[in-house]
């Protein structure tokens, strides 16, 4: 396979990963990213199923393939985690074997090894912790205590039982269909760490994402300095005349041509540069989005619920209701129930009028993510007095 084909393959792989990372994000609703995500996750699998059916393989084989696809992409499994770790390891190996020996160079000093080692070590520790940590799984032992961590706001979260786990559902929790379990302060299920992101591992996930964004941008910069160094060592940096056989005369070597010649000699570095450059925008945007919503005091799961509240406000069914005790609560009252509801109320016309019960201010929200509270131990039953 030629170098160009390999680079193109890496570029496509990087774009595929970027689309998988950014596609489900509401920030990209109605954009090319969302359409690309739909093609990758819906259109192409559907096409594969149809093609299988047309091949005459029979319903049994098609059902088996469907089962395998569901097991691979709809259930918790390490497939994409292996892809992620493999890509990471390949990139790190190229960096350590081909770029590291040329740092320092005439563009970067030896002190860069301090931030390089610190960022890599933090990133790896955060990744392992995010993958291995308990995200805040709700089980029979802790369900009751977990329900006391956050109050029910009766707008996004109500007291109810998870139909699958058959356990009380704490406020801010979500049932993860991939892991078949409820998770406290659920952010989302991340296929790249093969774990849910929730109350107890969001900090590791954010640490991993932020340092990965730094690694992509900083790594691309460092690799670029090594490519420039290699260009210099090959004597291609200065003004140079080269023989152009087609024109039959000497022509000046352009900067672009000299870079291409250098990259032709250092293919692995070129591939690493392509991969980092393609991934960097996706990782940086996703990290910024996750940090932003964590600071604003909601999770990815709750963002979807807030969008539903915004839609209900547009439908004119959200009200500030005066409860019998005198307190005011925000409620959704469907049109057919409004006539029968005797409580005094005023209509809500904008999402700004609805307070987020879980917002503790930027620093309070970050503190909650960085130092999540351990649930209070379940109240112990009173010991029965011994019979006399
Ligand atoms: Zn559940
Ligand atoms: Zn999960």
Automatic annotation (TrEMBL):
GO terms for cellular component: endoplasmic reticulum; Golgi apparatus; membrane. The keyword Membrane applies. One of its GO terms (biological process) is protein targeting to membrane. It is found in: Membrane. It comes from the Eukaryota. The chain crosses the membrane at residues 6-23, 79-97, 109-130, 204-228, 269-289. Residues 159-303 form the Palmitoyltransferase DHHC domain. One of its GO terms (molecular function) is protein-cysteine S-palmitoyltransferase activity. It is an enzyme of class 2 (transferase). It is a multi-pass membrane protein. It catalyses: L-cysteinyl-[protein] + hexadecanoyl-CoA = S-hexadecanoyl-L-cysteinyl-[protein] + CoA. Its EC number is 2.3.1.225. Keywords: Acyltransferase, Lipoprotein, Membrane, Palmitate, Transferase, Transmembrane, Transmembrane helix. Its main location: membrane. Pfam families: DHHC. InterPro entries: Palmitoyltrfase_DHHC, PFA4/ZDH16/20/ERF2-like. The DHHC domain is required for palmitoyltransferase activity. This is Palmitoyltransferase. It comes from Coemansia javaensis. The gene is SWF1.
């Amino acid at each position: 396979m030629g170098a160009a084909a390999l680079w193109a393959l890496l570029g496509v792989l990087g774009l595929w990963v970027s689309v998988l990372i950014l596609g489900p994000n509401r920030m990209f609703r109605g954009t090319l990213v969302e359409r690309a995500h739909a093609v990758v996750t819906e259109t192409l699998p559907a096409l594969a199923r149809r093609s299988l059916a047309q091949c005459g393989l029979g319903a049994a084989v098609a059902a088996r393939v469907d089962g395998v696809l569901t097991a691979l992409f709809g259930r918790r499994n390490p497939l994409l985690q292996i892809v992620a770790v493999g890509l990471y390891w390949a990139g790190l190996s190229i960096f350590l074997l081909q770029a590291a020996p040329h740092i320092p160079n005439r563009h970067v000093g030896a002190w860069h090894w301090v931030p390089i080692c610190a960022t890599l070590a933090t990133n790896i520790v955060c990744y392992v912790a995010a993958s291995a940590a308990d995200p805040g799984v709700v089980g029979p032992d802790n369900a009751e205590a977990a329900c006391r961590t956050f109050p029910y706001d009766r707008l996004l979260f109500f007291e109810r039982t998870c139909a699958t786990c058959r356990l009380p559902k704490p406020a801010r929790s979500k049932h993860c269909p991939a892991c078949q379990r409820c998770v406290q302060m659920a952010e989302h299920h991340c296929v790249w760490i093969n774990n849910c992101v929730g109350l107890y591992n969001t900090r590791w996930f954010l640490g991993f994402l932020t340092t990965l964004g730094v690694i992509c941008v900083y790594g691309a910069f460092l690799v670029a300095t090594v490519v420039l160094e290699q260009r210099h060592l090959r004597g291609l940096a200065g003004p140079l005349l080269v023989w152009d056989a087609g024109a039959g005369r000497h022509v000046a070597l352009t900067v672009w041509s000299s870079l291409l010649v250098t990259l032709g000699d250092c293919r692995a570095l070129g591939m690493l540069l392509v991969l980092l450059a393609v991934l960097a925008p996706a990782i940086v945007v996703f990290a910024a989005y996750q940090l932003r919503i964590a600071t604003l005091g909601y999770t990815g799961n709750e963002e979807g619920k807030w969008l539903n509240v915004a839609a209900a406000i547009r439908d004119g069914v959200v009200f500030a209701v005066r409860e019998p005790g005198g307190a005011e609560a925000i409620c959704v009252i469907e049109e057919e129930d409004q006539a029968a509801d005797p409580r005094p109320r005023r209509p809500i016309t904008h999402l700004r009028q609805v307070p987020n019960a879980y917002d503790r201010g930027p620093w309070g929200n970050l503190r909650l993510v960085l130092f999540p509270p351990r649930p209070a131990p379940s109240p112990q039953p009173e010991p029965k007095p011994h019979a006399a």
